[in-house]
Amino acid sequence: MDFLRAISKTRILVVGDVMLDRYWWGAVNRVSPEAPVPVVRLDNTTLAAGGAANVAVNIAGLGAEPVLVGVVGKDDEARLMAGVLASAGVAAEHLLSVADRPTTVKTRVIAHGQQVARIDQELDTDLDATAERAMIERLSALIENVDAVIVSDYAKGSLTDGILSAVIASARSMSKKILVDPKGKVYAKYRGATMVTPNKREAADACGLPEDLDSMVDTAGEQLLNDLDLEAVLITQGELGMTLFQPASDKVHFPALARTVYDVTGAGDTVIATLATTLGAGADLRTATRLANIAAGLVVEQIGTTPIKLADLELSLIENGNTANA
């Protein structure tokens, strides 16, 4: 448990696609006479951090210090984002404001505890050269004073090839662990990172394999390890848990722990945040993965983007008799 106590002194750099998650909560009592769609009577609206911002909020929830770098627009949603982050104990000072890009917003319509629609506000083209240089300069100034680096890629354009190359090279030169939550089919851009954490579908796409292939997870794990020269690959599989691959080592499977799954939104953010924070605090990779699996099981039992809290993680460890192994 020593590394859990060290978490409060741990700093984790998070770079990636920052999003604002907006929830419209209501009830459905009838179908629209204008079209065969439900009419949702809006009761209230809530806001939460999404994407890389949610990763940072999870890190803060664990008691560590997140250093969040990303892009927002010069709009009302950027101001709302700053307020959401501040309420979660995350500084917005390193977010880059870009005038010609909107802040990425996902608006989810929830009725009777179920999502009935989602509206996305985004621009997913790559940053221009000026914004890219500004991001690289900001990252270069911050990377020396953190314990680990998370790359949170949602393919919204904030992580250009130039930014990825710069942050991975800088982190490696300073012997920092670099954990990547990947996106897309081409993972060569992540070469040089410590580990990647794709879900099952993402791993299948990256390796050109059918997702329903019985041996897909094993094949993809080994292929990603070899092709990208990684220290580890963690493939998350929803209700089937997650599997950890390391070179010259047997795979380790962690069964899912959620009692009831209500919403998987943000579960991947929780996994990588818990991994990086506990690794940065001194945990070994298998212990960090076990804790990330427990954390994921806790957050999917909640509706909406819900960050993990250290107290909940510790309580779950005690309830499952895992204290001695932590």
Shape: globular
Record the strand order, biggest sheet. Answer: 5-4-1-8-9-10-11-12-13
Average predicted confidence as pLDDT: 91
Distance between the termini: 5 Å
Count the beta strands: 13
SS-derived structural category: alpha/beta
Q: What sequence of helices (H) and strands (E) makes up the elements?
A: HEEEHEHEEEHEHEEHHEEEHHH
Strand content: 25-35%
- Helix count equals 10
> Residue share in helices?
25-40%
pLDDT < 50 runs, ≥5 residues:
none
Largest sheet: 9 strands, mixed
Radius of gyration: 19 Å
SSE topology sketch:
Blueprint lengths: L1 H5 L4 E6 L1 E14 L6 E14 H10 L3 E9 L2 H12 L7 E4 L5 E8 L2 E8 L7 H14 L5 E5 L8 H13 L3 E5 L13 E2 L3 H8 L8 H13 L3 E5 L5 E4 L6 E3 L12 H14 L4 H15 L10 H10 L7
Parallel strand pairs: 1-4, 1-8, 2-6, 4-5, 8-9, 9-10, 10-11
Antiparallel strand pairs: 2-3, 6-7, 11-12, 12-13
Helix pairs in contact: 2-8, 4-5, 6-7, 8-9, 9-10
